[in-house]
Specification:
heterodimer; A: alpha/beta; Rossmann fold; 5 helices; about 35% helix; B: 3-stranded antiparallel sheet
Chain lengths: ~190, ~60
Protein backbone atom coordinates (compact mmCIF):
# COMPACT_ATOMS: atom_id res chain seq x y z
CA UNK A 1 0.00 0.00 0.00
CA UNK A 2 1.33 3.40 -0.98
CA UNK A 3 2.38 5.66 1.86
CA UNK A 4 0.13 8.70 2.15
CA UNK A 5 1.44 11.93 0.75
CA UNK A 6 2.13 14.70 3.22
CA UNK A 7 1.25 18.13 1.84
CA UNK A 8 1.20 20.90 4.45
CA UNK A 9 -0.28 24.33 3.78
CA UNK A 10 1.97 27.23 4.76
CA UNK A 11 0.22 30.44 5.77
CA UNK A 12 2.81 32.96 4.68
CA UNK A 13 2.03 36.10 6.66
CA UNK A 14 1.95 36.92 10.37
CA UNK A 15 0.05 40.20 9.97
CA UNK A 16 -2.90 41.09 12.15
CA UNK A 17 -6.17 40.91 10.23
CA UNK A 18 -4.65 38.81 7.47
CA UNK A 19 -7.17 37.76 4.82
CA UNK A 20 -4.77 35.01 3.82
CA UNK A 21 -5.77 33.01 6.88
CA UNK A 22 -9.24 32.42 5.44
CA UNK A 23 -7.66 31.37 2.15
CA UNK A 24 -5.25 29.01 3.88
CA UNK A 25 -8.01 27.38 5.90
CA UNK A 26 -10.17 27.01 2.80
CA UNK A 27 -7.35 25.37 0.85
CA UNK A 28 -6.48 23.20 3.83
CA UNK A 29 -10.08 21.95 3.88
CA UNK A 30 -9.87 21.08 0.20
CA UNK A 31 -6.60 19.19 0.71
CA UNK A 32 -8.15 17.28 3.62
CA UNK A 33 -10.84 15.94 1.26
CA UNK A 34 -8.22 14.05 -0.78
CA UNK A 35 -7.73 10.39 -0.03
CA UNK A 36 -4.19 9.35 0.60
CA UNK A 37 -3.07 12.84 1.56
CA UNK A 38 -2.16 14.07 5.02
CA UNK A 39 -1.94 17.78 5.67
CA UNK A 40 -1.82 20.46 8.30
CA UNK A 41 -1.62 24.22 8.52
CA UNK A 42 1.80 25.73 9.20
CA UNK A 43 1.51 29.35 10.29
CA UNK A 44 4.67 31.43 9.91
CA UNK A 45 3.47 33.39 12.91
CA UNK A 46 4.09 30.32 15.06
CA UNK A 47 7.59 29.48 13.88
CA UNK A 48 10.53 29.98 16.21
CA UNK A 49 12.98 31.74 13.92
CA UNK A 50 15.55 34.20 15.15
CA UNK A 51 15.83 37.32 13.02
CA UNK A 52 19.41 37.93 14.15
CA UNK A 53 20.79 35.50 11.59
CA UNK A 54 19.56 33.81 8.43
CA UNK A 55 19.32 30.60 6.47
CA UNK A 56 19.94 27.22 8.00
CA UNK A 57 21.50 28.79 11.10
CA UNK A 58 18.05 29.81 12.35
CA UNK A 59 16.24 26.54 11.75
CA UNK A 60 13.05 25.76 13.68
CA UNK A 61 13.54 22.03 14.23
CA UNK A 62 9.84 21.20 14.05
CA UNK A 63 9.38 23.20 10.84
CA UNK A 64 12.44 21.57 9.27
CA UNK A 65 11.17 18.14 10.21
CA UNK A 66 7.87 18.86 8.51
CA UNK A 67 9.62 20.14 5.39
CA UNK A 68 11.74 17.01 5.33
CA UNK A 69 8.66 14.81 5.60
CA UNK A 70 6.69 16.79 3.02
CA UNK A 71 6.10 15.51 -0.50
CA UNK A 72 4.73 18.86 -1.62
CA UNK A 73 3.88 22.27 -0.22
CA UNK A 74 1.04 24.70 -0.68
CA UNK A 75 2.19 28.23 0.04
CA UNK A 76 -0.51 30.83 0.64
CA UNK A 77 1.11 34.17 0.03
CA UNK A 78 -0.37 37.67 0.15
CA UNK A 79 0.84 40.34 -2.21
CA UNK A 80 2.36 43.27 -0.33
CA UNK A 81 3.43 46.04 -2.75
CA UNK A 82 3.87 43.36 -5.42
CA UNK A 83 6.21 41.39 -3.13
CA UNK A 84 6.08 38.59 -0.60
CA UNK A 85 6.17 38.93 3.19
CA UNK A 86 9.68 39.09 4.59
CA UNK A 87 8.93 36.54 7.28
CA UNK A 88 7.82 33.99 4.67
CA UNK A 89 11.13 34.39 2.83
CA UNK A 90 13.00 34.16 6.13
CA UNK A 91 11.15 30.94 6.98
CA UNK A 92 11.61 29.35 3.55
CA UNK A 93 15.32 30.19 3.57
CA UNK A 94 15.81 28.35 6.86
CA UNK A 95 15.76 25.04 4.98
CA UNK A 96 17.39 23.78 1.80
CA UNK A 97 18.10 20.06 1.61
CA UNK A 98 14.57 19.40 2.87
CA UNK A 99 13.07 20.77 -0.35
CA UNK A 100 15.02 19.09 -3.13
CA UNK A 101 12.80 17.54 -5.82
CA UNK A 102 9.55 18.30 -4.02
CA UNK A 103 6.51 19.97 -5.52
CA UNK A 104 5.15 23.37 -4.56
CA UNK A 105 1.97 25.16 -5.50
CA UNK A 106 1.22 28.82 -4.81
CA UNK A 107 -1.98 30.52 -3.79
CA UNK A 108 -1.71 34.27 -4.24
CA UNK A 109 -3.94 36.57 -2.21
CA UNK A 110 -4.68 40.20 -2.93
CA UNK A 111 -7.19 42.88 -2.08
CA UNK A 112 -7.36 43.89 -5.72
CA UNK A 113 -8.36 42.00 -8.81
CA UNK A 114 -5.16 40.23 -9.80
CA UNK A 115 -5.26 37.47 -7.21
CA UNK A 116 -1.65 37.80 -6.18
CA UNK A 117 -0.30 37.11 -9.66
CA UNK A 118 2.60 39.52 -9.17
CA UNK A 119 3.75 38.04 -5.89
CA UNK A 120 3.55 34.58 -7.41
CA UNK A 121 5.83 35.65 -10.26
CA UNK A 122 8.24 37.15 -7.75
CA UNK A 123 8.32 34.06 -5.58
CA UNK A 124 8.86 31.49 -8.34
CA UNK A 125 12.63 32.04 -8.78
CA UNK A 126 13.12 31.81 -5.03
CA UNK A 127 11.40 28.44 -4.89
CA UNK A 128 13.37 27.19 -7.87
CA UNK A 129 16.66 28.07 -6.20
CA UNK A 130 15.56 26.21 -3.07
CA UNK A 131 15.23 23.04 -5.14
CA UNK A 132 11.44 22.94 -5.22
CA UNK A 133 9.52 22.10 -8.39
CA UNK A 134 6.74 24.55 -9.19
CA UNK A 135 3.51 23.50 -10.85
CA UNK A 136 1.71 25.32 -13.66
CA UNK A 137 -1.53 25.87 -11.77
CA UNK A 138 -1.86 28.64 -9.19
CA UNK A 139 -4.57 29.69 -6.83
CA UNK A 140 -5.52 33.33 -7.37
CA UNK A 141 -7.69 34.83 -4.65
CA UNK A 142 -8.81 38.32 -5.61
CA UNK A 143 -10.73 40.75 -3.40
CA UNK A 144 -9.75 38.61 -0.45
CA UNK A 145 -11.27 40.83 2.24
CA UNK A 146 -14.73 40.30 0.76
CA UNK A 147 -14.34 36.72 -0.38
CA UNK A 148 -15.32 35.11 2.93
CA UNK A 149 -18.14 35.58 5.41
CA UNK A 150 -17.58 36.24 9.10
CA UNK A 151 -17.25 32.55 9.84
CA UNK A 152 -14.56 32.15 7.19
CA UNK A 153 -16.77 30.40 4.63
CA UNK A 154 -15.91 31.23 1.04
CA UNK A 155 -18.66 33.13 -0.76
CA UNK A 156 -17.71 32.24 -4.33
CA UNK A 157 -18.10 28.52 -4.93
CA UNK A 158 -16.16 28.68 -8.20
CA UNK A 159 -13.01 28.58 -6.10
CA UNK A 160 -13.78 24.99 -5.15
CA UNK A 161 -13.48 23.96 -8.80
CA UNK A 162 -10.37 26.06 -9.36
CA UNK A 163 -8.62 24.70 -6.30
CA UNK A 164 -9.57 21.18 -7.36
CA UNK A 165 -7.60 21.67 -10.61
CA UNK A 166 -4.70 23.15 -8.66
CA UNK A 167 -4.60 20.27 -6.17
CA UNK A 168 -4.95 17.56 -8.80
CA UNK A 169 -1.86 18.89 -10.54
CA UNK A 170 0.05 19.34 -7.27
CA UNK A 171 -0.75 15.80 -6.12
CA UNK A 172 0.23 14.35 -9.49
CA UNK A 173 3.53 16.18 -9.31
CA UNK A 174 4.06 15.12 -5.70
CA UNK A 175 3.55 11.47 -6.60
CA UNK A 176 5.76 11.71 -9.69
CA UNK A 177 8.55 13.40 -7.76
CA UNK A 178 8.35 10.93 -4.90
CA UNK A 179 8.76 8.11 -7.40
CA UNK A 180 11.68 9.95 -8.95
CA UNK A 181 13.39 10.71 -5.65
CA UNK A 182 13.15 7.13 -4.50
CA UNK A 183 13.71 5.24 -7.73
CA UNK A 184 15.33 7.24 -10.52
CA UNK A 185 19.08 7.75 -10.07
CA UNK A 186 20.77 10.93 -11.11
CA UNK B 1 27.57 3.79 -8.78
CA UNK B 2 30.72 2.62 -6.97
CA UNK B 3 30.17 0.77 -3.70
CA UNK B 4 31.81 3.54 -1.70
CA UNK B 5 29.32 6.10 -2.99
CA UNK B 6 26.24 4.23 -1.92
CA UNK B 7 24.23 5.47 1.02
CA UNK B 8 22.07 3.24 3.15
CA UNK B 9 18.93 4.43 4.88
CA UNK B 10 19.60 5.31 8.53
CA UNK B 11 16.08 4.09 9.39
CA UNK B 12 15.50 0.86 7.46
CA UNK B 13 18.92 0.06 5.99
CA UNK B 14 17.78 -0.09 2.38
CA UNK B 15 20.05 1.30 -0.30
CA UNK B 16 19.05 4.88 -0.98
CA UNK B 17 18.61 6.48 -4.38
CA UNK B 18 20.90 9.40 -5.22
CA UNK B 19 18.43 11.66 -7.03
CA UNK B 20 19.97 15.12 -7.04
CA UNK B 21 23.11 17.21 -6.81
CA UNK B 22 22.29 20.70 -5.57
CA UNK B 23 24.76 23.54 -5.89
CA UNK B 24 24.75 25.46 -2.63
CA UNK B 25 26.00 29.02 -2.82
CA UNK B 26 27.55 29.22 0.58
CA UNK B 27 30.90 29.10 2.30
CA UNK B 28 32.01 25.55 1.71
CA UNK B 29 33.05 23.19 4.51
CA UNK B 30 36.42 22.20 3.08
CA UNK B 31 35.87 21.20 -0.51
CA UNK B 32 34.85 24.41 -2.18
CA UNK B 33 34.42 24.13 -5.89
CA UNK B 34 35.87 27.44 -7.01
CA UNK B 35 34.48 26.95 -10.51
CA UNK B 36 30.91 26.83 -9.24
CA UNK B 37 31.15 29.23 -6.30
CA UNK B 38 29.87 26.83 -3.71
CA UNK B 39 29.65 23.16 -2.94
CA UNK B 40 27.57 20.26 -4.18
CA UNK B 41 25.03 18.70 -1.86
CA UNK B 42 23.97 15.17 -2.78
CA UNK B 43 20.31 14.33 -2.11
CA UNK B 44 19.34 10.71 -1.48
CA UNK B 45 15.94 9.13 -0.79
CA UNK B 46 14.99 5.69 0.49
CA UNK B 47 12.70 3.63 -1.77
CA UNK B 48 11.67 1.60 1.25
CA UNK B 49 10.50 4.15 3.79
CA UNK B 50 10.87 7.49 2.04
CA UNK B 51 13.53 8.84 4.39
CA UNK B 52 15.71 11.52 2.81
CA UNK B 53 19.35 12.24 3.51
CA UNK B 54 22.05 14.50 2.16
CA UNK B 55 25.81 14.74 2.20
CA UNK B 56 28.42 17.01 0.75
CA UNK B 57 29.75 15.54 -2.46
CA UNK B 58 33.40 14.49 -2.42
CA UNK B 59 34.97 15.62 -5.70
CA UNK B 60 36.55 12.78 -7.62
CA UNK B 61 34.85 10.06 -5.60
CA UNK B 62 31.81 9.79 -7.77
CA UNK B 63 31.25 8.01 -11.04
CA UNK B 64 29.49 10.98 -12.67
Amino acid sequence: MERPLYIPVILGTPRKGRASENVARFVLGEVEKREGVETELIDVRGLRLSTEDEGESVKDAEFSSKMSRADALVVVVPEYNHGYPGLLKHALDSNLKEYVHKAVGLCGVSAGGFGGTRVIENLLPVLRELGLVTIFWDGNFSGAQKLFDESGRILDDSYVRRVDKFLKELIWMARALRHGRENIPL
Amino acid sequence: MPEADRMNCPDCGAEMNHHADKLVYDSAPDDEDAGEGGFILEAHACPGCGRSATRVSQPGARAH
